[in-house]
Fold this sequence. Notes:
Order of helices and strands: HHEHEHEHEHEHEEHHHEEHEEHEH
Shape: globular
Number of helices: 13
CATH architecture of the largest domain: 3-Layer(aba) Sandwich
Number of strands: 12
Mean pLDDT: 97
Strand order of the largest sheet: 1-7-6-5-4-2-3
Largest sheet: 7 strands, mixed
Strand content: 15-25%
Number of domains: 2
CATH class of the largest domain: Alpha Beta
CATH topology of the largest domain: Aspartate Aminotransferase, domain 2
Amino acid sequence: MKDSTLLVREKIDYSEARPIATPIFQASAFRSGDPNFYTRNTNPNFEDLENLLAKLDNTNYCVTLSSGMAAISSVVHLLKPGDELISGSLIYGCTYRFLSDFCQQMNIKLKFVDLSDLEKAKSTITEKTTMVFFETPTNPFLRIIDIKAISTILKSRNSNAWVVVDNTWATPINQKPLNFGADISLYSGSKFFSGHSDVIIGAVTVKNKLLYDKIKKYRFYHGAVPDAFSAWLTRRSMQTLEIRLKRHEESIRDIINYLEKQPLVSKIYFPEIDGVQLKAYGCLLFFRLKTQDYSHVEKFMNTLKLFDQGTSMASVASAVANPFNGSHLSMSEAERNDIGLDEFVIRLSIGLEEVDDLVADLDFAFSTIN
């Protein structure tokens, strides 16, 4: 063969190779006859991650997507004009804005309600409700929404309706929504799954093949696929998920014990763990700074050395955020006030650093506030 042909066609046949670690299938297309014919349809790295996530959520069906927001979009696209969506009011700010805009454009009736209050849920969910969507623990404030109770209420009024749980903050290690009556569980895998602030990816697990086919069709035609490397990184990181969660949980207990004695903290928000729906919880908490001067919030956050300021969380590195001016900024000020969120609420994401170092860092930051 001539050089130009060699450059293109010369390859070693690795079909007999049996690596211990799954390789990265960095390919846009596969040879004729391979079921993975095109990566916009599927890819072995997607399937490897999907197989694991499906098993963790006690189902056979999972679809990975390009981000957590793509996962949410794929699910709400199950709705059609004239349907009714009831959403928990305590959800990620971008989700709140997306649902508001999408439902308005698609002529879908939308209601936001605090679904941690079952009386409000009972009075809002009707036979016209097509889907109920929520995060639990909630975002912000980490309230618990009873998945089984919400599912029972909805199915008693519309047996064909869907219960959708954003399970990002609990993870399937600590909470399995499909076990409690949810039809769909979705994730931003950029958080706990990847765990290192280096991946954007999403996932949806569902109870049945009909929903699976619809979500996968959405991914194919909207091009909402992750890339092979992101799927590979996430699958690799999942091997340490349970170990990381246990370390998060141990450290956050010490952080809470410290904050409870801190006079500049007026309230701590952390979920009630019943051991049934929610088996355990760690990493994230919210607290309210005892001040009416926002400059104190800024000074506290800017003084911290071991807490990165950013929009994400659930990484090996600790982080601090002001949700009012960060994760929920896409909501109007009135909408933020309606859910009880103001600029004096601070979110901490506790990483894997030595907890004594984190406490010392927090202690010094509090000491700078007069």
